[in-house]
Specification:
Elements: E1 9-10, E2 14-20, H1 41-44, H2 50-77, E3 85-93, E4 96-101, E5 110-117, E6 125-136, E7 146-155, H3 157-195, H4 198-201
Antiparallel strand pairs: 1-3, 2-3, 2-5, 3-4, 4-7, 5-6, 6-7
Domain PilZ: 85-168
Pfam families: PilZ
InterPro entries: PilZ_domain
Amino acid sequence: MNNREYLRVRIPELAVLYNELPAGSSPPFFLGFGERREPPVERDMPVEDPALGAVMESLATLEAKVDRILGYLERQGALKPPYAHQGQVVDISGGGVSFATLSLHPVGAYLELCLIPQVGDPRPIYAVGKICWVEPAPEKAGSAAHHVGVKFVEIEEADRQAIIRLVFHMQRKEKERRSVESGAAQETAEPEWMEGDPCRRKG
């Protein structure tokens, strides 16, 4: 189990598409999670060449992503929508996500997630998460909305790192915005101080 601590940031520019997995089921194979095929015997042998090891790791990751694509194509061929629910992310970290949604799900349910960034790297991020809590969403999100907190239980490390980079990107943007606003406030305040009558400020 991953018990690392992660920075969390509020991020409105992120949508989430998801399905609730049936109770007692394992994550679908096409996600690249859960039950996997047994690797060939050759892969169990140690790889002395670092470059060859990196290539083999990349091929394994590519294989998992191809499995996902095939799963999506199978669903579309069966005229089923890839995801039944959608939500708007409230905040996110490398360890989990919370979002507002009109759909109600029980605590403890597992979700198959697809996160779609609108800033930074636009590639979708896939994960399986477990609902830890559900509460009413803020009024601005709609009276029928629910605020759902989800902990990632299955996610590729590359996708987790993409989330962490996104968090730092949004934090940097927020700091820049605050710096600009602070500078603008000082610029408007200083001329007023300089042009005012100093005698009046002495009381």
